[in-house]
């Protein structure tokens, strides 16, 4: 059963060789074996077993079941699941229980997916290493001395360790794709608005999207498209019909940014493997062409100005009155706010609230926030121009492989800069995927990214299947 895709699991169930209960038990055993990796904040073992048994009974009785029967998923601890705790890996949400289920998750549950537990992450999804969690670090699944990536680090390790079929993460600036790359699994982020954000704890609302991590392309595609579609509870969700079939066939065209692929700071093994892949694509008859993208150096600054601004506003609601934790030490209303927030938020979250408040303050608004909005529009126009002549943009997921745990603890800017290749998709709202590419000489995995124009998930999935299958 280890590492099987959903098609194979369902075939074995239909032939009577496997039961849903056995599937759940397999993953629970895997969770047990990987306990030192600190993947799960909470495992829903008994509930998952009960759901599996109910499904087995339905199957035995010949009753109809949802198309995702036999699948087991993990959810990042920022996705609401009614009656279950959700904390965003923060002390400030200690003891908080979801009042409803996120729409995207509900669509999977309606098709009989089973949730095995909630995974660790960076606090409020802010981070690139899964080191900023009140529950501690989740190390890399391939090399436990290194970081898992973030913020959906544990989500990536949950699939890498085969503790579930797919994991739901969120991607505001790369948090699905970057840890996928660092752990040698697939991670896909949809077009902004393709998947409902209702029930997702907000970080940067004009950037956030739920994404899927998995070992098999067909599973990642299936889960993503099942979650997709308009939701009356999220006014930013798109009403465009969900397209499941790719319209492009055969030869396609790829663009690459010269300055990215030949950057002196790009890790040697990543550069070599990326160029080898582009050579392969060309030899298979696809067009691979160089494009210019002079805005590269503005991506990370614009991303951090805008997301911290949005975060400082979104996180205003955690005040000790309505949700979760309240400081014991508070003896006045002002103290309730102040002490609760001081004690409840971790240092990275505080840094971002302060940065966000600063860029939104009246004296600096135009210098930072307005300027970053302008950069966002220019980047979006430049990217759209690329897709007028090319089907896909190809670029590394990260400039580096996973670093040693603690290595950048005192240097947040260094960590922010490592988001350079992923934030393009979130600034512009386009879909993107990270596919496992290779490992460096020390065995550290890294990924290659593909991006495409808005609402072309089906094409992205199809080209990824083509890339992975050969
Ligand atoms: N590393 C980025 C950040 O810290 C991305 C986070 C995310 O996508 N949630 O903001």
What is the fold-level CATH name, i.e. the topology? Amidase signature (AS) enzymes
Count the beta strands: 11
Q: Class in CATH?
A: Alpha Beta
**How many structural domains does the protein architecture include?**
1
Number of helical regions: 16
Average pLDDT, rounded to a whole number, is 97
Indicate the proportion of strand residues. Answer: 5-15%
Give the ligands present. glutamine
Estimate the helix proportion, in percent: 25-40%
Secondary structure class reads alpha/beta
CATH superfamily: Amidase signature (AS) domain
Report the C-alpha radius of gyration, rounded: 21 Å
Numbering strands along the chain, what is their spatial order in the largest sheet? Answer: 1-3-2-4-6-5-10-11-9-7-8
Query: Which word captures the global form?
Result: globular
Largest sheet: 11 strands, mixed
CATH architecture term: Alpha-Beta Complex
Q: Spans of 5+ residues with little confidence (pLDDT < 50)?
A: none
Instruction: Give the N-to-C terminal Cα separation.
Output: 23 Å
**Secondary-structure element order, N to C:** HHEHEHEHEHEEHEHHEHHHHEHHEEH
